[in-house]
Design a protein that fits this description.
- Chains A, B: It catalyses: uridine(1498) in 16S rRNA + S-adenosyl-L-methionine = N(3)-methyluridine(1498) in 16S rRNA + S-adenosyl-L-homocysteine + H(+).
- Chains A, B: Belongs to the RNA methyltransferase RsmE family.
- Chains A, B: Its EC number is 2.1.1.193.
- 2 copies of one chain form a homodimer.
- By secondary structure, chain A is of the alpha/beta class.
- Chain A has 2 domains: 71 residues, Ribosomal Protein L25, Chain P, CATH 2.40.240.20; 156 residues, Alpha/beta knot (3-Layer(aba) Sandwich), CATH 3.40.1280.10.
- In chain A, 28% of the residues lie in helices and 26% in strands.
- Chain A contains 6 helices and 12 strands.
- In chain A, helix 2 packs across helix 3 and helix 2 runs parallel beside helix 6.
- The C terminus of chain A is likely disordered.
- The interface between A and B is medium-sized, with 32 and 33 residues.
């Protein structure tokens, strides 16, 4: 019997004594790649019920069964933050999804803009990246990756109570900042490599829910901008804040 | 004659009327890949003399000559910030160097720690990554990538006037913060994937130049931590500050 450091996302409900049947791919990973066998322990989570220590109770080439022993961590929900971004090259899109899961976004929304090239996106592949990031980084929550949608449509139906942090690369040095910004539900919008169109920029600037924030005097790639923007937000309004009572 | 958007780093001095002979690889990139020819314009920089508009005055398969027309941007030096990091997998190490150049580090220092695996590093390849990031992101400065060195040696010879931001993943929520930290020369230290050893952590904690800073409640990969730490530093102490007079 070994206590492994493996963390595995599963879809099923978790609870004391609950058994979790494994799919073929999961069995291959646990028993083929990670060399676990019957009696070995690992950590599992489903994004809802926290993290559980589980034991391998059946191990086969095409399947297997885990049994939940006890809960080792509560569900830790990130703040109510959406990350909106315009998909870029495949590797950098994957990277943005991974980083959003690490940095604590609740929902990831790929959007098409006037200057976006890509019209298609494999939502399932991106969701798998978010799951892998949660497995690697000790997360108990997996952000939902939404289907690709038009930015203009999203703005048409924007929820009244959600603020939007608009990272406008043409506004270096002229931002409002987040220190005095309201708490509550937020979204961050990261532009495409070619920037936003004038029409988009005008619409975003006058929207009552928009807060324009600059990401410094240098031009950042979209993936860098995503991490930097989430850092500023988490430090000012999210769960990186030093003192909950402040501001 | 076309005004291209190409930005090229060159090693030579730049000044009005100055000619810049091209190496074979540069000629291949400009004339083979980017399809420039005689009379076309591009931007060049050398990390010291700002950005210059240049004209192609000779174009050949194995070489060529550019001539400087006029300066289009002054040298923009980033703040005096070093990024120290323990090299990780190749792709993520490349990424950290790229991000340090984008985020505005002055110097990039790969270090070996008690838990670092890699003992070798291609400094020239990493330096090329920093140059490429500056070319892509409109930079006029290229951070120097130092040779790999031992963290313990670096701490033995640490300069008196340089503060160190120590991102300690075991200190979530207990950080000092940067708001009251002194300005001046700084370094950021990002740990290896296995964390720091107890001996390293003890030494860093008691050093008079160390400021312990937490990067939130979730575990971040080293490349994410590097971007997040540089964001916090630039926003609090660097050139992302909203009001120069504040604090």
């Amino acid at each position: 019997m070994k206590e492994s450091k493996v963390r595995l996302y599963v879809a099923q409900e978790l609870g004391a004594g609950q058994t979790v049947p494994l799919e073929r791919e999961q069995a291959h990973y646990l028993f083929g790649v990670m060399r676990l066998s019957s009696g070995d322990r690992l950590a599992i989570f489903n994004g809802r019920d926290g993290e559980w220590r589980a034991e391998v109770t059946e191990a086969g080439k095409r399947g297997g069964v885990l049994t939940c022993l006890e809960r080792t961590a509560k569900l830790r929900l990130p703040p109510d933050l959406w990350l909106l971004f315009a998909p870029i090259k495949k590797a950098r899109t994957d990277f943005i999804v991974e980083k959003a899961a690490e940095m604590g976004a609740r929902r990831i929304v790929p959007v098409t803009t006037d200057f976006t090239n890509s019209e298609r996106l494999r939502q399932d592949r991106l969701q798998a990246h978010a799951i892998e990031a949660a497995e690697q980084c000790g997360g108990t929550f997996v952000p939902e990756v939404a289907d690709l949608q038009k930015l203009s449509h999203l703005l048409d139906t924007w929820p009244d109570d959600r603020n939007l942090m608009f990272c406008d690369e043409t506004q270096a040095g002229a931002h409002q900042g987040l220190d005095a910004a309201p708490r509550g539900p937020w979204a961050i919008l990261i532009g495409p490599e070619g920037g936003f169109s004038d029409a988009e920029r005008d619409r975003l600037r006058v929207a009552p829910f928009t807060h324009v924030v600059s990401l410094g005097p240098r031009i950042l790639r979209a993936d860098t901008a995503a991490v930097a923007a989430m850092t500023l937000w988490q430090a000012a309004l999210g769960d990186w804040r030093q003192r909950e009572g402040a501001a």
